[in-house]
């Protein structure tokens, strides 16, 4: 009797903690793109920006960190980034308002260089004709036409290597020039400030080109030495363009060029429709199952329905606690869990009925029924858990979401079917002095 009360308290504690763990669900349960809306990108890591012998997998890891910094700068709630294979990165951005802007920010290499301009007209003429002198490169400064389209217009012969690079930056932010035009204000770290001071001090009167991803943004004349470690990028930016450039520069340059090989955008209205459809289908299935159990197994069916509710509560709590994402296939996994939970209770009830027909007492029938059904329940659920765990470990996207909810749901099902329902039966037997067990 005392042991039954203790077990009942444990069950109530589990239910209470579970509800507390995922309530309110709108805040605690993470929704996938198919339910919330947003964008998913698959990025292919290509060749490094600078020649190196870094292994592909390490290059991808470095690229992932830079992409993560840029995603953080977008201010989105609960983005998902993960490495796929050796050279791919999957990025999920739930609730993103401007997919095109997000793609621009994530895909820009943002390799910043400061290079001295060679003003010798003969060398420039030779470079334009195809004879670029050794130690130089020919790049173009872009300007916008009347339609606002940037086109290469001014050829510049630049000296290699770069005097200062984006690796020497400590900060970048949106600013405005004296003419109230949007610019990007740069601040170098101590090493970058030293380099910048040296190059400006020794090249007063010459031009210093600011190059971003192989395009000259501007090439101002150095009027005096700049020891402050600060610089400015101007280039006919809009406020949004200057702000986004500051974001990617602050996050750091990508160590490798990346290509967006897959893009999936789900609108918020479609996400809401998916939630409504999934919830309605799951509720309808649960109601039909509950009605069948109650009609066929009477009071035993009520116990099974209660255990089913506990199962779902535990599943939601585990999802919330481990910050897992609920997807549309995940809802399908929950629906399958409901069916498996009922299957376990059917096994138990049928074994109990057999024991009652054999002339055993109610208490003995309950104990024997659970003992006989236990092996079959563990066996069937364990094989399902193994299959679901494989989907969870090796699957991607929707397959992983299905495997996740199915794994959690089946494990919760073992607890509710074997432990919770038996405690309820034993409590009812000892507390209400039941003379007949109503299980169909």
Blueprint (SSEs and pairs):
Blueprint: H1 2-22, H2 25-28, E1 30-31, H3 33-36, E2 38-48, H4 56-74, E3 80-84, E4 88-94, H5 99-107, E5 112-118, H6 121-128, E6 136-144, E7 150-159, E8 164-165, E9 169-176, E10 182-188, H7 190-201, E11 208-212, E12 215-218, E13 230-233, H8 239-251, E14 256-266, H9 268-297, H10 299-321, E15 325-326, H11 328-357, H12 362-394, H13 398-432
Parallel strand pairs: 1-15
Antiparallel strand pairs: 2-4, 2-14, 3-4, 5-7, 5-8, 5-11, 6-7, 9-10, 10-13, 11-12
Helix pairs in contact: 1-10, 1-13, 9-10, 9-11, 10-11, 10-13, 11-12, 11-13, 12-13
Q: What would a concise description of this structure say?
A:
With 440 residues, this protein is of the alpha+beta class. The protein contains 13 helices and 15 strands. The protein is 55% helix and 21% strand.
Summarize the main sheet: 6 strands, antiparallel
- Count of all domains: 2
Low-confidence stretches: none
Put simply, the count of helices is 13
Strand portion:
15-25%
Helix content: 40-55%
Order of helices and strands: HHEHEHEEHEHEEEEEHEEEHEHHEHHH
Predict the CATH topology of the largest domain. Answer: Multidrug efflux transporter AcrB transmembrane fold
The total of beta strands comes to 15
CATH homologous superfamily descriptor of the largest domain: Multidrug efflux transporter AcrB transmembrane domain
Mean pLDDT: 86
**Would you identify the CATH architecture of the largest domain?**
Up-down Bundle
User: What structural class results from the helix and strand content?
Assistant: alpha+beta
Seen as an oligomer or otherwise, the chain set is single chain
Whole-angstrom Rg:
33 Å
CATH class of the largest domain, named Mainly Alpha
Shape: rod-shaped
Distance between the termini: 26 Å
Domain Protein export membrane protein SecD/SecF C-terminal: 257-425
GO molecular function: protein-transporting ATPase activity
Subcellular location: Cell membrane
GO cellular component, one term: plasma membrane
């Amino acid at each position: 009797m005392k042991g039954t009360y203790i077990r009942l308290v444990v069950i109530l504690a589990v239910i209470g903690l579970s509800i507390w763990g995922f309530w309110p669900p709108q805040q605690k349960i993470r929704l996938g793109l198919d339910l919330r809306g947003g964008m998913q990108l698959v990025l292919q890591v290509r060749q490094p920006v600078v020649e190196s012998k870094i292994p592909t997998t390490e290059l991808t890891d470095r690229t992932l960190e830079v992409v993560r910094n840029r995603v953080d700068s977008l201010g989105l709630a609960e983005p998902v980034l993960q490495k796929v294979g050796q050279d791919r990165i999957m990025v999920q951005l739930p609730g993103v308002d401007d997919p095109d802007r997000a793609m621009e920010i994530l895909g820009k290499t943002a390799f910043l260089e400061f290079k001295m301009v060679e003003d010798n007209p003969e060398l420039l003429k030779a470079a334009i004709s195809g004879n670029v002198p050794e130690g130089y490169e020919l790049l173009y400064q872009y300007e916008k036409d009347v339609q606002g389209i940037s086109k290469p217009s001014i050829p510049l012969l630049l000296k290699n290597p770069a005097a200062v690079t984006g690796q020497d930056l400590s900060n970048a932010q949106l600013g405005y020039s004296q003419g109230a035009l949007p610019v990007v204000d740069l601040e170098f770290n101590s090493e970058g400030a030293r380099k910048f001071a040296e190059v400006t001090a020794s090249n007063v009167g010459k031009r210093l080109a600011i190059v971003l991803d192989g395009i000259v943004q501007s090439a101002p004349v150095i009027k005096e030495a700049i020891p402050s470690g600060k610089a400015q990028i101007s280039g006919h930016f809009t406020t949004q363009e200057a702000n986004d450039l500051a974001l990617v520069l602050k996050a750091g340059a990508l160590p490798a060029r990346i290509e967006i090989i897959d893009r999936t955008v789900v609108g918020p209205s479609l996400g809401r429709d998916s939630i409504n459809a999934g919830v309605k289908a799951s509720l309808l299935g649960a109601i039909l199952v509950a009605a069948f159990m109650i009609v066929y197994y009477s009071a035993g069916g009520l116990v099974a329905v209660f255990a089913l509710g506990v199962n779902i509560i535990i599943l939601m709590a585990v999802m919330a606690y481990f910050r897992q994402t609920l997807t549309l296939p995940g809802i399908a996994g929950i629906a399958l869990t409901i069916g498996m939970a009922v299957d376990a209770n059917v096994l138990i009830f049928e074994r109990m009925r057999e024991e009652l027909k054999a002339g055993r007492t109610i208490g003995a029938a309950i104990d024997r029924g659970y003992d006989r059904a236990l092996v079959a329940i563990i066996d069937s659920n364990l094989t399902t858990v193994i299959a679901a765990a494989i989907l969870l470990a090796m699957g991607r996207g929707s397959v992983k979401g299905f495997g996740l909810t199915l794994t959690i749901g089946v494990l919760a099902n073992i607890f509710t079917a074997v432990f919770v329902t038996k405690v309820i039966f034993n409590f009812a037997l000892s507390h209400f002095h039941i003379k007949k067990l109503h299980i169909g």
